[in-house]
Amino acid sequence: MIIAGREVVLKQQFDEMLDEILAWYISQGYDQFARKFMKELHDAIVHKIAPFPERHSEYPFKKTPDKSYRRYIFRKKYYVIFKVMPQKLEVLAIVYSKRDLNKLPID
Looking at the domain assignment, is residue 106 inside a domain? Predict the structure, then answer.
């Protein structure tokens, strides 16, 4: 999809991480919570991240001179990590913020 002149791409790693999160909620009997989580995440990507990606803080574990790696804090507990390029926005990962982020493979 194109938002604010950029192609928004959800990378495979993001999809896999999201599937893990949703599967855990569902396995705990929180089906409605999982659906709400998914809707709110979609809205955050479409309405908060994609239109204004530079507004969000630099991802501290992948610093670059152009600050192309950014993070969005979702629900106070998760980071949505994305890469900003002139014509493209790649959504790379969604992770629990208490996880050891030094070991998270982001490319």
Answer: no
